[in-house]
Design a protein that fits this description.
Helix content: 25-40%
Strand order of the largest sheet: 1-7-6-4-5
Radius of gyration: 19 Å
Number of strands: 13
CATH superfamily of the largest domain: Thiolase/Chalcone synthase
Oligomer: single chain
Distance between the termini: 30 Å
CATH topology of the largest domain: Peroxisomal Thiolase, Chain A, domain 1
Strand content: 15-25%
Number of domains: 2
Bound molecules: oxa(dethia)-CoA
Order of helices and strands: EEHHEHEHEHEHEEEHEHEHHHEE
Number of helices: 11
CATH class of the largest domain: Alpha Beta
């Protein structure tokens, strides 16, 4: 017996409003053809006015708890780039609104790698014995931080939330988180950033430019780093699990760009038909991306119990990570 964190339930939610590429092209100098060919995205979901990240997180969390048939966990981790407020963290609000009482709850800020960072801390808490059960939620309302006039970011990101319940079990069980490999490179922090709103800008004594209050990204440089780092982390995880590339049934990468997913898969040697893609429907949902992709695949017959799943992500910080598990026979709501 070897103690492990085991996936017991998965929940996912996107807000009902769909924004198509054509709708964006009505107000921005862009086109459906450009967005589809450069990213693979056809539409994204956007929250209604008044909806915040915790609202989506509570919905996804409740679904994951129901899927796992649980009404208690020892720890709630919310990975998000778009907390309800700069202070305090969003996780305690989510925990109490879910009826989980006074459990430990904290946020993870690793941008698009947030879900894998959350999975890692949850796994560590369970394997160490600090917790028996953890709810990990990736939740984002990027529509709150996108510059509506910036075509380079507005066409890419969408809102949504995904959540998993992990509980203590055995490493040999399907659903056990087998490995997590994480990394960061702070020398590239400026590649993905909201320049204003933190201590650096607030204590600068300088006036705030409105553009600096929005999310910005150097897409080309991020693209190159994402390919390199997702591949490297995936290889590290494969080496530690002892899995061959041929034995990977599903590659579920952060849904940033279909060209990134295709390039990483090709460099790893994973056949294209094993690459899970749902960004056409939801865009890049950052920390929510991997659980949303897992839920979509599981619900559409693209992911079955017993299959070997390789996860990889890259995001602001910059940060990256990968993980591996055998897909368990669980409910997905
Ligand atoms: O989730 C966190 C991690 N994020 C990522 O992994 C994102 C990684 N980066 C990307 O996915 C891609 O770099 C983008 C999709 C963001 C951009 O694609 P690209 O192929 O790298 O395009 P580019 O930035 O090199 O721009 C090519 C051209 C430029 O025009 P010029 O300079 O060639 O005349 C841009 O101004 O496309 C222009 N462009 C657009 N045109 C129409 C940029 N955005 C748009 C747009 N519509 N929305």
């Amino acid at each position: 017996m070897s103690r492990a964190a085991v996936l017991r339930g998965l929940g996912a939610v996107v807000p009902p409003r769909v924004v198509t590429n054509d709708e964006l092209a009505q107000r921005l100098d862009t086109s459906d053809a450009w967005i589809r060919s450069r990213t693979g995205i056809a539409q994204r979901h956007v929250s209604a006015p008044g909806t915040a990240t915790s609202d989506l997180a509570v919905d996804a969390g409740a679904r994951a708890l129901k899927a796992a048939d649980r009404d208690h966990v020892d720890l709630v981790v919310v990975a998000t780039t778009t907390p309800d407020h700069p202070c305090p963290a969003t996780a305690p609000t989510v925990a109490s609104r879910l009826g989980l009482g006074t459990v430990a709850a904290y946020d993870i800020a690793a941008v698009c790698t947030g879900f894998l960072y959350g999975l890692s801390t949850a796994t560590a808490a369970i394997v160490s014995g600090m917790a028996e059960s953890v709810l990990v939620i990736g939740a984002e309302t990027y529509s709150s931080i996108l510059n509506p006039n910036d075509r380079t970011t507005s066409v890419i990101f969408g809102d949504g939330a995904g959540a998993v319940v992990l509980t203590a079990g055995d490493r040999d069980e399907p659903g056990a988180v087998l490995e997590v490999d994480l990394g960061s490179d702070g020398t590239l922090a400026e590649l993905i950033m909201i320049p204003a709103g933190g201590s650096r800008q607030r204590l600068s004594g300088l006036p705030v430019s409105p553009d600096d209050t929005y999310f910005r990204m150097d897409g080309k440089r991020v693209f190159r780093s994402a390919v390199e780092r997702m591949e490297g982390a995936a290889r590290a995880v494969l080496e530690r699990t002892g899995w061959t590339v041929d034995s990977v049934d599903r590659f579920v990468g952060h849904q940033a760009n279909v060209r990134i997913l295709a390039t990483v898969a090709e460099q790893l040697g994973v056949p294209r038909d094993r690459v899970v893609v749902n960004l056409d429907k939801v865009g890049n949902t950052s920390a929510a991306s991997i659980p949303l992709a897992l839920a979509d695949a599981a619900n559409s017959g693209g992911l079955a119990a017993g299959e070997r799943v390789l996860l990889a992500a890259f995001g602001g910080g910059v940060t990256w990570g990968a993980s591996a598990l055998v897909w368990p026979d669980i409910s997905v709501f």
